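Data availability excerpt. The first of two example chains:
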Amino acid sequence: MFRIISFLFILLLAGVVQAAFAQDFDETRYEQFIAETMDASSVPGLAVILFDGDGVFYEKSFGIADKDKTPVSLDTPFQLGSVSKSFAALLLVQLAAENQLDLDAPVSDFLPDFRPQDKIAGREMTVREIIAHRSGFSTLDGNREQDNTDRGSDVFEKAVAKLNTVQLQSEPGSVFQYSNANYMIVAALVETISGKEFETVMDERIFTPLNMTNSYVQKFEGDHLKEATGFRQWFGMPRARAFTSGRVMMAAGGVVASAYDLALYVRAVSSRDSRIIPPEFADALLLPIETNGATDSPYGYGWMFAELEGRDVIYHSGLNGGFSTQVAFFPGTGRGGVVLTNLSGSLQGDVAGAVLRKGLGVPTGAAKPGVMQYVNLWGLVATVISLLMFAVRSIRQIMSRPPKFKKRNWFLTLLPTLLLFGLAYGCLVVFPRLNGIELSGIKTFYPDLWLCLSLSGVFAMIWGVSRLVVHMRYRHLPAHSVETD
C-alpha cells in the first residue's frame, strides 16, 4: 500500500513525458543508476523490460536469483504480489462478457454463503464494488491471512465464513479502502462460476493465450524455470527465505511470472489484445471504476490511475515477502515497463519504482531508504535494549534484599505497571493493526521489525510484572525500606 501511494506521488510530480524518450534512451547511464540503486538497498536480483508502441526498447537482468547465486534472467519467475489483482479481475471480466456473471449483481447471487452480518445501510455489496475495493472491508481484514499456508480445496469456504463476521468500515460502494479481502472473494467467485480451480482458470484464460510459458499461480509445476528465491532484509542485510502463501491469497498476490511474460501481459492489456480482453470491455478495463458516484482514489479492474499534465498513466505495485514489483504504462501510446526484484524489507527503499520511473523518463524520487526508515528500525532496537535493561533490573530486585522504599499510594504504585502493560499491548496489537496488518503478518514482510515489536512487548510485560511483584512482596515493610524503578 505504501509503495502504491509513493509511486502515485512521484508520478504527479512529473512535468511532461518526453515524447522521443526511447530514441534518446541512454543505456549506460540507466544501467549505472540501476547498479547504484541496487547496491544502496542490497537488492540481490532485478529484471526490467521497457517498451513502446514499436516494441521492447530495453531489457536486461541483474544480480542473483537465489542463495546459490544463479544469475537472474528475463525468464526467471518472480512472485508479483498485488500486481496479480489485475489478472484476477480480468478473469471476472471475461466471465461477465460470456454472461456467466453480472458485475453489478450482489456477490451473494453467486456465493450464497456470503452473507456479511454487518450490512451498513442494509445493502449488499456487488461484484464490481469488490473488484474496486469499495466493499467496506478494511485493509486489516485483508491482511489477517498473510501468514496462512493452507493449500486445501476449501480455503475460500473458510475465508467467506470469516468475512461474514467482520464489521464493515463503510457502506458498500461509498469509500475506497484497499483490502486483500476483496480478492479472496474474487477468487471464490472465479472458482464457483467456472467450476474449476483458480489456478487452472488463470492458465487457460490468460497464460496459455499469451504464451506465458514461465508463469503460474503460486506453486511450481511443469517445465517452468526455477523460481527466484525471495530475500527479506534482516537489519539491512538480505536473507534468503522461500515462502509461498496459502491458496486464499492467490488472487490478491499469487501470480508468479518472469519479466518477459509480465511484459507480454502488460502490453496485451495496454493494446486491448482480443486474445484476453473482451471487445465489449476494451475501454472500461482501462478506466477507473465509479460506484455510487464515488471518485476518491481511482481504482479500476486491478489497476490504479494517475494523471500527468492531462495524460493518463496506469500502474500497480506488488509486495510479497521477499519480492517487490512495479508495472506501469501510458494508455494510447503503448509505452510502459515492468520491474521485478527479489527483496523486501524495512530498509529496502523503492527500488522497483525508482528503476521503472527512471526508465520511463519521469522523476525517480527517493530510491534509497529514507531517514525515517532508519529512525524507525534503530529506534525500535534502542527500545528493546532499554526495556530489557529495566526488566533485568526489576528482576534482580525481586531476588535481592529490599533496598530503600518511598511510600506511595496504590494508584501511583500501579500506574507505571499499567502503562507498561499498555506499551506491551501497543507493540503486539495496536501498532500492527494501525498499519493494517497483524503482528504475524509483519513477520512475512519485515522480520526485523517483527522481532523488535515482539521483544518490546515481551520485555515491557516482564518489567511490568516484576514491578508489581516487588511492590506486593515488600508492601508490608515500613516506609523508606524499599525502592523500585
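And the second chain:
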Amino acid sequence: MLKPKTLSYWIAGMILYLTMLLFSCTNSLEPDIEDIVELEPLEGEARNIVLHVYDSDSRYFLGELELNTEGSITISYEPLDEYFIYASAEGFFTEIYYCNKGESIDVDLDSCPQFRNTISSSIFVIEPKYTEDAYGYYPDHPYAELPIIAQLPNGNEYRTQTDEQGRFCLGNLPDGIIDIRMQYGDISRTISMESRPEGYYDDYQLYNGAVSYAPNIYLYPDKEMDVDLKLIFPRGGYVIKSEPEYNNGWSVHVTPDGLIDGKYPYLFYESALPSIDNSETGWIFESENLRSGLTELLSGHGFRGHEIDDFLEFWLPILNRAPCYAFYPQDIEQLTILDIQPFPATIIRFHLYVEPLQSYRSLDEPPHIYIPERNGFTVVEWGVIGSPDLVPSER
C-alpha cells in the first residue's frame, strides 16, 4: 500500500501525464470547419503607405504616391478629372478611395488581426464598360458583402461573406492550401491562399468579364466559294486581335479543303466579353491528364484530326501552371453569334470557360448535346474563354 505522501506524488504525476497526453492529442488534430474563427479588422496606425492612382474611366495607371503615416493627401493629375486610388501598407488591409481632381482623401487603414493560421484579403472588382462604339471601365470597387467559400485541404467547405469593404479574415485554419471561391454575376473565380502559423495576406482583383482566347473558325465549303462572316456580340464585346484582319467582318475566298485566301487554315480571333454563360457544370482534368482528357472531349463533340491537334498545340503549353483545370462548356450563341453568308448547312461550335484549380474537386457533368453530322458547307469552331490572366502576355 502506498504511503500518503507517495500517493499524492503519484496522483500529481498521473494528472500531469494525462494533461500532457490530452494536450498532445488535441494539438495533433487539424482544425476543421467548426474550429474556424472569423476575425474583424482592427484599428491601427499604418506607416509607409503606398497610393496607386488610376483614371476612373480608362483605368489608366497615373502614378504612385507615398504617405509616411495616415492622414490627408490631395490628388491631381492633368488633364484627367476623376480618380480611384488603392492605399496599401504592410500588415494592413488595402482600401480604395475616390476623388475628383484637386480634392483630398483621408487615408485611414485597418490592420490585419494576428491569430494562429489566418488568411486575410481585400477583394476588388474590375468591371469593363461596353457601348456600341467604344469600351472602357467603371471605377474599381470592393467585392462588398458577397459570398466566399473556403475549401480546406480535407475538402470540407466553410461559407461566409466579405464585409462592406470587400475584406475577410479567417483564423485557426489547418496548415496547407485553402481555395477561396467567389461568384460575381456570371463569373466564378478561385484563388489559392496558404494557411501557415504566421498568417497570410494578399489582395485580389476579380475581373468581371472574360477574354475569348484563340477561337479558330474552320470553313469547309462543298465547292470553292466566297464567304462573308461577321461576329455579333449580343451581350456586348469587341474583337481584340484577328488573323486575317477582321475589319468589321471577313470577306474571304475558301476552297473545299478549308484553305482561306490561299494561305490561312482557319479564321483566328480573340475578343473581350462582359460575362460567361456557365460556371456550374463541366469537367475537371489534372494537368498530367490534359492531353488525353481534352482529346477525348473534343472528339466527343465533333472535332477531327488537325482541329484537335491545333487546339492541343496552342493550349497544352499554356495550361501548365496549376495542378488541375476546370472546363465549363458555354452556350456560345449567348455570347458570340456567327453571321455567315452563304449560310452553312452544318455548324459545330464548342467553347470552354477554363478555370485553374489548386486541387481536384467534384463537378457535375453538363447534359449531353446533339452533335450534327457534317453535310454540305460546314463551319467548325473551338475556343477557350478565361480571365485576362489565363494566358501569359508574353506568349
